[in-house]
Amino acid sequence: MHRQDIGTHTLRKTFGYHYYQQTHDIATLMILLNHSSESVTKRYLGIEELDIQNALKGFRLGK
């Protein structure tokens, strides 16, 4: 059976996300994905948003 709901772009993005999670090597990933900058790669994978969410996890003002 041939799946119609998963395309090459989805696989590319999934690979990039998991590669980054395992290695945190954004420079190599940027080259692999042929992006012009690390910030483009992070935005493409949604990593900036995840980094912000993780940084704010457990953050509390006051007591």
Tell me the number of strands.
0
Q: Count the domains.
A: 1
Q: What is the subunit organization of this protein?
A: single chain
- Could you name the ranges where pLDDT drops below 50 across 5 or more consecutive residues? none
**What general form does the structure show?**
extended
Number of helices: 4
Question: How much strand content do the residues show?
Answer: under 5%
Q: Main beta sheet, described?
A: none
Mean pLDDT: 89
Tell me roughly what share of residues is in helical segments. Answer: 55-70%
Q: Which sequence of SSEs, written as H and E, runs from N to C? A: HHHH
Task: Identify the notable features of this structure and list them briefly.
mainly alpha, extended, 4 helices, 63 residues
Protein described:
- By secondary structure, the protein is mostly helical.
- It has one domain (8-56).
- Helices cover 65% and strands 0% of the residues.
- It is built from four helices and no strands.
- It has helices at residues 8-23, 26-32, 38-45, 47-56.
- Helix 2 (26-32) crosses helix 3 (38-45).
- 8% of the residues are buried.
- The mean pLDDT is 89.
Please give the structural blueprint.
Elements: H1 8-23, H2 26-32, H3 38-45, H4 47-56
Brief summary:
This protein has about 60 residues and is an all-alpha fold.
